[in-house]
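Posted in: Structural Biology > Protein-Ligand Complexes

Title: Requesting predicted complex, heme C in pocket

I'd be grateful if someone could produce the 3D structure tokens for the following input. Sequence and ligand are given below.
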Amino acid sequence: MKYKLIIISTFLLAFFGACKYEYIDITAKQENDSIIVDSSTLISYSNDILPIINSNCLSCHSGAQPPNLSTFDGVKANADAIKSATSSRYMPRGSRLSDKEIILIALWVEQGANNN
Ligand code: HEC
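-- Reply #1 --
Done. Output follows.
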């Protein structure tokens, strides 16, 4: 019985530990991490977001693989999906964004996903 409990709790710990590590908690990151963007900063599509998309997403999402992120309209139309796919580290496939890049994307989407 004792053994069973130990095995189960080890499993749970590993499982939830992994989730916690993989999922970026944006609020906590902003509170704890001085390098992270202040949420009152206005994020710019052309200066902050476009370079992230260009170097991390377009190798796959410029046509054949939906969503097509090669135009502003394509990015705007998929803004919420982009925010959740990057915050959960589901995207980009095969590489990783920095915490800062993930937070820039999330803030830009929360600020209205404007072409600024
Ligand atoms: C190496 C190829 C590759 C790269 C690079 C890549 N993606 Fe994807 N992406 C895919 C594939 C394949 C799918 C569809 C299959 C799936 O959902 O797993 C997908 C699906 C998506 C979806 C839809 C997810 C859903 O919930 O349906 C979004 C949004 C997305 N990608 C955003 C991005 C963003 C933003 C980047 C860059 C930060 C990126 N992807 C980089 C291959 C890639």
